[in-house]
Amino acid sequence: MRILDRIIPIIGAASGQSANQLGCEKAPALIESLLRAGSKSSQEKSADWSRFMWQETITCTTSLRQLAALPAVADFCLQLATFTQKLATQYPQLLVMGGDHAVAMGTWSGIVQAYAPRGPLGLIWVDAHLDSHTPDDTESGNIHGMPLASLLGQGDVLLTQILSPKPKFKPQHVVVIGARSYEPVEVERLQSLGVRVYWMRDIERLGIAAIFTEAVEYLTATTVGIGMSIDLDAFDPHDVPAVSAPEPHGIFLGSFLAATNVLKSLVALEITEFNPTLPGSEQTAQAVLQLMNRLL
Ligand SMILES: [Mn+2]
Asked: Rounded distance, CA 296 to CA 293, Å?
């Protein structure tokens, strides 16, 4: 095995402006410091943390919020996309550590561009929310409610045309897992496009392992690789508390971790919405390390 095949580069995406409250911009520095300390306190005793290599942290610097921040968020996402595109051509796997979930528009625009000569990618979007608003139908104005619509080509051109004018994913190449809090306009958008959604009630009925298996089978049939974008609010707030927009009755972290063996060699992983300024930050940081180690 070549050394580059073993190393997993990490990009920090320090963005907090697009969430309902600030704080997520502090997550990359915290996780980086835990990794530099060798993660001795991690519950993942057998983990080889040396395979992770922190490359760079990109910061979204605007002091504006909501839609006023959109041009700055788009600039930041373009910068992030340029990095992820480069790394995805050099390494078989990479990790983006957010940041609020708006960073997804940068992460996946770059990775999809890198894989374009090989073929389309599939995306598993793990989230309590659907993130499928556009600037025209958002009630809050928070851009972290828009990344999935943007990646599917809907919304402001500054967000939908990062690196390329084309939609980043075809609707049939996207699967949402864990949704339980949304507006009707988002459900209508995803349904009319034909995006498959596994609701929280489906997870309660079938179990997360069965859903992973089905999702992987569905996406593998028509794509050349699968990526995963995790919004930590998908998990039950008892397990993963320090998130910007917690929603009760989520996925149990233990069940999720136990089922990750179904997800073989993701092309990339993104972990978002960790807000270290909120209570339960230490427990949430541990969850991030566990997810990194099991999914990559
Ligand atoms: Mn989200």
From this structure: 6
